[in-house]
Amino acid sequence: MKLHNGIHLHVVSTSKFKDIEISVRFMNRLEEKQATLRSLLALMICDRCEKYPTKKMMSKRMDELYGAVFNAHTVGYGAAQVLDIRMRIIDPRYAPHSSLLEHAFDFLQETLLHPLFTEDTLTENKAILQAKMERMRDEPSQYAVSQGLKLAGEGLPLGISALGEIEHIEEITLDEVQKAHQRLFQEDRIDVLVCGDVQESYLKELVEVRFSSSRRDAVFKSYYAADMDKEAKESVEYRHISQSSIMMTWFTDTSMNDQDYFALKIANAMFGQYPTSFLFQEVREKNSLCYSIYSNMISYDGALGVTTGVEKEHIQKAIDLIKQQFQKLCDGEFADDLIDISKTMVVNSLLATKDSMQSLLALAYQNAILGKERTVDDLVNYMKEVTRQDIQRAAQKCRLVYTFVLTDKEDEHEEDRKF
Amino acid sequence: MKKIVNSKYRETYYEDTMDNGLKVVLWHKPDYEKSLFMMATPLGAMDLRQRDEQGKSYEFPAGIAHFLEHKMFEMGDKDVMDVFSQLGANVNAFTSYSETAYYFSTSQDYKKPLALLLDFVQQLDISEASIEKEKGIIIQELNMYKQMSDQRLLMETFSSLYAEHPLKYDIGGDAQSVSGITKKQLEECYAINYHPSTMVLIGVTSHDPDEVLSVIRKNQKKKKFAPAPKVMTVYVDEPEEVARKKYVFSMEVSVPKICIAYKLGGISDVRERIRQEWCIKIMLDAYFSSINEDYQSWIDDEIINDYFGSEVDYGENYGSVLIYSETEKQEAFEELVYNGVQSIAQAKLSEDVLQQLKRRYYGQTLRSLNSFDDIAISFVRSYFDGSDFFQSMEILDAITMSDIEKACESLADAPFAEVIVQPKYQNK
What we know:
The complex is a heterodimer. Chain A is of the alpha+beta class. Chain A folds into 2 domains: 8-210, CATH 3.30.830.10; 233-414, 2-Layer Sandwich (Cytochrome Bc1 Complex, Chain A, domain 1), CATH 3.30.830.10. Chain A is 45% helix and 21% strand. Chain A contains 15 helices and 10 strands. The model of chain A is unreliable at 412-419 (pLDDT under 50). Chain B has 2 domains: 2-233, Cytochrome Bc1 Complex, Chain A, domain 1, CATH 3.30.830; 246-423, Cytochrome Bc1 Complex, Chain A, domain 1 (2-Layer Sandwich). Chain B is globular, with a radius of gyration of 23 Å. In chain B, the strands form 4 sheets. Chain B has a 7-stranded mixed β-sheet, with helices on both faces. In chain B, strand 5 and strand 6 form a beta hairpin. By secondary structure, chain B is of the alpha+beta class. The interface between A and B is large, with 68 and 67 residues.
């Protein structure tokens, strides 16, 4: 529902949960410098506000609301970056004589509209953002995934991290943060999503009274399928680590709104999403090369990634095996059983959407972005209709674009080693 | 079948015990599509030395419970994971220091996967060849955790605290102990720790409890088990002092991480243990968090950052308090922790803050009841502890200032260990 103030309100009304989740999402274009700035802004919004100018006051207020959860993060949705601010409160039936929902929206209003922007809060949150990014970079498997995507997605939104980049943090000024904050309400598409035992009409009132926005709707399409004329590339980086990480990226040539999207979901499930998949069975079970191996769809960017950790001497063997498994999908070398099992598993996780507040909100938001009104049952039906030919076709449209390897430093002289 | 209703949290569950001794709990969650079933044994990574009624002793290599967890998924020529997938269920398992649990969830038919869960956990079917193959997978798993700096810091902290207690080993053991595990050891360990009478099965589901129970009963009736073994875990006396006072190692991290850990004695009475844990948690949350006025200055002075945190954990024969952060200013951090722990030992706390925290924990507990995994794991743990799910919250509600004062005294002169991860190279 679009409100008078231009904000989109989505309400998932259900009484089965113990709490109420509120998610306020600001969507704008994903650009490297802006991404860092908005990432910092997310931290500052959660830190303190004019009404509660100390951390002590912030946590006291959240505890008064029975340990309310309040956090913010930035997420990439294809060509868009979404700044997502979330609040969770317990359902008022567990806290008699309180007006928890009103208090939660009051709190959101204070924190969203009047964050505490000072040189001190800026310096502090810059340091925290930097620490978060360094921590992610330190973890070899996480680094391999983000670096693999960055290299594969060079020149595309896929190559831009929604968290931002360390090198942009230092130069950010207080003035830029304030302007970025104003732009949230002037330029971004704003969606407010609420899940719990709530009435839409009442929420409409709560949101309309508290927020106003002069912004126009995002005029760009966030989902896309990356261009295909790229040569497959490979690169290696070195660190002192006991396990080597591999990240391989395919472009799928299938966007979220394509016919083949559902077939691609099934193909991915068969390839590497479940223990029954080719990757798990061949690379882990038959060859004992790894403990964990997964393929994931990066749906809004039309990409698919495989990630695993192996011994250094097994890198080439693992890469070859992974490629072979993908080729099997393209050649139609798979049993009907595997199609059925993979469909059953995908359907199973779709049905589980109904039992999770986050998943219900994610579906509502996805529908809003894609301009669809699909229910879980619609999605289940689309999955069930996928045929062997559809799967093969969706797989054949994919092309491996990048193989990134992070491995042990000892053999630095082998830098020219080819994968 | 006994029905238990908790009106405060609006939750209902049913309890029964099968003829073979298997405890069954069915937690009723109307309106949900999903069902989760978890079967668990109190065999964990700590249970390395055991003794049975006849006085026979068993000594297992570190990591055996975890190895067994991996091998349970084999049933002759069938891969258990495959069969669950065919039935539309996601199956998984975990091993902690004190239990091993197997569980599946499904939003489709629950009956066949439930029978499969019972079947695969109640039968060990392994070959020499498959054991050897599994070693490669497990060693990759250990390597994966080993290069995560948070995991390494935690492991090294426990190795610093304990000289004898099996907590000094990683849950999965190490490459050496894993390589040495034999088929005979796995079979022995299984035989004495997986009898139905020592295990619990919990279902979190919207399905009719009578119907679910009849599925379980029918499955159990078909099976015969040896008489229930009575096995206990034997612990070597652990010295009061810590094993290593200070331990520094290096990894490729950008900022040093530091953990200061206090060693406390175990508490055998379960109610007392839960109360003690709450009391110390309250003081840790009141002192080492944003509730403390000084917290902001610690951040401003870069003595701590957002990684900062604290934890308390008690068992029958161990207890520990951990305080950790990322920081370049290690001496200032040591001082901060030392002063904090001395202040906690004196239990300086206002009634207001106590009430504030009780309110927070109530909200957190309530929220955890949305999660099927949380319900199942918490239930299993409190059952093996000899407590029940809601007892912990009742104990918390009753805690007074004088309980806290009494509980925190032991911290004043507790021995402590310090562990630091240093960056291997200066980045940039």
